[in-house]
Amino acid sequence: MKFEDGVTVTSKDVKYAVERSLAKTTFPAGPSYLNQYLDLQGYTSPYQDPTPDKLGLKAVETPDDSTVVFHLKQPFAAFDDVVMMPPTIPVERAKDTGVDYKKHPLSTGPYMFGTVNPGKNFTLVRNPRWDQRTDPIRKALPDEFDVALNTNADDIDQRLIAGDLDLDVTGLGVRAAAQGRILGDPRLKADADNPASARALYTSLNPDVARSTTSIVGRPWSTPSTAPPCRPRSAARTAATSSSTSSRRSCPVPRCSTRTRRPTTPATSSRPATNSADAATPTASPPTSPTAPSGPTRRPPPRRCNSLWPGSASS
User: Fold this and answer.
1) What is the pLDDT of residue 194?
2) Average pLDDT over all residues of the chain
3) How far, in Å, CA of 218 to CA of 224, rounded?
4) Mean per-residue pLDDT for 212-218?
5) Does residue 295 contact residue 270 with C-beta atoms inside 8 Å?
6) Cβ atoms within 10 Å, residue 118
7) pLDDT tens across 158-210, in order?
8) Per the confidence metrics, is the pTM higher than 0.70?
């Protein structure tokens, strides 16, 4: 494999590319994947590297021209995915121009940069040094690609419909305005498609289980009113159990049972009667605050559910 200037690519070019990706003073907005995983031992940049060949990073070794050895801080099973990212794209040290390298990075693939206007557009032309035998996966088909950057999305759709563009690089499909126009025109609809694209969807599940009388959302279950919404199994069942000490209600989560206790009767006055009228007339209980009952109370037991739906708890 060769660079577009005819120089053969070796493992040292990969190591140098890794080293320059670590230089956060030069590239403060650059990727930091390798900074996180490599055992850098204080190494920061090839631009401050005192070694003659600027390859002093001990975390990467090149025992021969086709082998690269990475030394990590600790084992990381997905590191092969990390090294497929841009920081390992080989860079020829003699052609490295620091922050200006982005104006014309050297190619090792079927195409190389023709013209580059950062933030506006660039062209890709065939790389005469590329050899199909060294790269059986990629192909060189069109002679040239003209790519426009930072273009309005609706303008892209209109240019695609008019035939001024061949491809939307993002591959997200046309927007709502253009979609209505295409579906309403049989000629345009015949050229349209709704392909299935490759997507990987991930969901994060918390492996921790709450083991207290506090719900998953953090509200204490001190009264039945804060329990998960449940519905009576039947009117007859509700009537039969409404005055009992405990009841079971059907919940939207499987096999969820709730238990409530009969409210404690407020304590009455124990002052002895002083006359016959007092003895004949019951003494009224003093008013009590709903938040501070005068008699002893018991805390309701925790709800027990075998489901981890939001709003349920396990004890």
Assistant:
1) 77
2) 76
3) 16
4) 48
5) no
6) 9
7) 999 999 999 898 888 888 889 999 999 999 999 888 777 666 677 767 666 55
8) no
Instruction: Give the separation between CA 290 and CA 279, rounded to whole angstroms.
Output: 29
| SS (HEC) of the chain | CECCCCCECCHHHHHHHHHHHCCCCCCCCCCCHHHHHECCCCCCCHHHCCCCCCCCCCCEEEEECCEEEECECCCCCCHHHHCCCHHHCCCCHHHCCHHHHHHCCCCCCCEEEEEEECCCEEEEEECCCCCHHHCCCCCCCCCEEEEECCCCHHHHHHHHHHCCCCCCCCCCCCCHHHHHHHHCCHHHHHCCCCCCCCCCCCCCCCCCCCECCECCCCCECCCHHHCCCCECCCHHHHHHHCCCCCCCCECCCCCEECCCCCCCCCCCCCCCCCCHHHHHCCCCCCCCECCECCCCCCCCCCCEECCCCCCCCEC
CA gap 86, 300 in Å, rounded: 59
pLDDT one-digit tens code per residue, 27-72? 999 888 899 999 999 999 999 999 999 999 999 999 999 999 999 9
Task: Name the token pair of 149.
Answer: 């950057």
Strand partners, 256: 305
Q: Where are the domains of the chain?
A: 11-97, 111-190
Confidence at residue 240, expressed as pLDDT on a 0 to 100 scale: 41
Measured between alpha carbons, how far is 73 from 59 in angstroms, rounded to an integer? 9
Amino acid at 24: K
**pLDDT single digits (tens) 188-202:** 999 888 777 666 677
Neighbours of 194 (CB within 10 A): 6
**Percentage of the chain modeled with pLDDT above 90:** 49
